[in-house]
Specification:
By secondary structure, this protein is α+β, with helices and mostly antiparallel strands. It contains 4 helices and 10 strands.
């Protein structure tokens, strides 16, 4: 008698749990209110308010000083060299900007903001579709830092949304422990909310 009652209770609990999980999945995500990203962001997750998106990165990474006005996030590994690093920027979309030129335009902006950098070579480039259907361009490249000796490899993602150009770049030393595929995986964590 007790065994049958216990099984019935377990079945009811499983059905209720399934219903609660189904309701949670079916609920539309809440919009992020301006200024609320600080309370929603936590180690390993950055949340931007406008446009509303999130980006994931390794939880043990730490914030570093932003170097450009458009930067909303700059996080680095905790080693002495601060690599790999991930930078997220949100800037006004320039008139005439198109995704077809995103990789070339992005590399030109890296060259302009970091004088002395050179030997840029695009290794891969592909169109991607983000979780909400927004198109973007993901690409990998290698390049030389302004000291002329340090060789770097990067993965980047460029997306145009709500009149903004959103860009992510993950960079490390060429031949380092972090592969281009891992860097690409980091920038592709961008999700619109």
């Amino acid at each position: 008698m007790m065994g049958k009652a216990l099984r019935s209770l377990l079945v009811v609990l499983l059905v209720l749990t399934g219903f609660v999980l189904f309701q949670a999945c079916a609920t539309k995500p809440a919009q992020v209110a301006p200024g609320a990203e600080e309370s929603l962001s936590k180690p390993g997750l950055y949340v931007n308010s406008s446009p509303a998106f999130s980006v994931e990165y390794p939880k043990h990474w730490v914030s570093d000083k932003k170097q450009q006005d458009a930067e909303v996030l700059r996080v680095v590994n905790t080693n002495i060299y601060k690599v790999p690093l991930l930078i997220v920027a949100v800037d006004d979309l320039k008139e005439g900007a198109v995704l077809d030129n995103a990789a070339k335009d992005y590399i030109e902006s890296v060259r302009e903001t970091n004088p002395g950098t050179k030997r840029f070579k695009i290794l891969s480039e592909k169109r991607v579709t983000l979780n909400d259907g927004t198109p973007g361009v993901a690409f990998t490249f290698k390049w030389s830092w302004s000291d002329g000796m340090t060789k770097l490899q990067s993965a980047a993602l460029v997306v145009h949304k709500e009149g903004k150009a959103i860009s992510l770049i993950a960079t490390t030393i060429l031949g380092g422990d972090t592969s281009l595929e891992e860097l690409l995986g980091m920038v592709l964590t961008l999700k619109f909310l």
